[in-house]
Amino acid sequence: MSKSPNRLLDSLSANAFSTISPHLKIVELKFGEVVAEAGSPIRQVYFPYSGVISLVVELDVGAMIETAMVGRDGVLNAAPALDGKVSLNKGIVQSAGSAGTIEVNRFRRLANEFEPFRSLLMRHEQVLFAQSQQSAACNVLALRCPLCPNSGRESGFAQTVPL
User: Which of 4, 67, 103, 132 has its CA 20 to 30 A from that of 91?
Assistant: First the structure.
C-alpha cells in the first residue's frame, strides 16, 4: 500500500513518513505558476503528487532553457532548503497538478533528524544535476545535430553523435 503519491516520500520508512506527513500541506500547482525564482529566498519545499515543475535558466535575450524537470518522483528546493535558503533555479509549473509542501525550517529540522531522509534528498539532487548536464548537452547538440528536429543541417555537421 502506497503511503504517498510522491515516490520519494513513498520510499521513506514508515517511521520517517509518519513524522513528516503531518507537516505537508497540499497545494494546487497551476500551469505557468512560478514556484521558485533564481536567487530568491525559498519558503517552501515541493513534493509533486502530480504535474511537472520545469527548472529553467533565463537568458539575457529573454528566452528560457529548461535544464531539468521534477515530477512525482522528486522534490523541488530540497538542497537550498538544507543550507543556502536561496533558490538556485527558476521553477515553473509545466503541467498542472498538486504537491505536498513543507515550510523550509521545519523541512531542515526533519532532514537533520532523519539521516536516511537527508541521504535520499542528496541522491535526488545528484540525479537533478545529472539531468541538467544531459539537458545542457542536448541543448548544444540541438543546434548542430542532424538527428535533432531543431538542428541546423546547414552548419555542415553531418556525423552521427553517439548519445
Answer: 4
